[in-house]
Amino acid sequence: MSQLQIDQVLAQIRALSSQIEPQAAPSAPAAGSPSPFASLLRTSIDQVNEAQQHASDLATAFQRGAPGVDLPQVMIEMEKASVSFRALTEVRNRLVSAYQDIMNMQM
Known about the structure:
The protein is mainly α.
C-alpha cells in the first residue's frame, strides 16, 4: 500500500471519528447501546460492504452491456473496493494483535 493510500485511509478514519459525539467522561455504555468505537467500526464495515456491492453491480452491468458503464469506471470502483477491504483487514489484524498483547500481559 502506498503512502498516499495510507494517508487517504487515515483521513477517512479521522473524518469518521470526528462524526462521533465526544463524551464528557469515559463511562460504561448503557446496556443495549453500542459504544462509540463499536458504532465507528460498524459504520466502517458497512461502508466497505457498500463499496464492494457497488463495484459488483457495476461489473455485472458492464458484463450485460448496459449503456453508460465503461470499463475504466468498473476497474476504478473494483480497485477502490479492494483497497478499502485491505485497509479494513489491516485494522482487524491490528485489533487482534492488540487484544493478544493485552491477554498475554502478566498481572
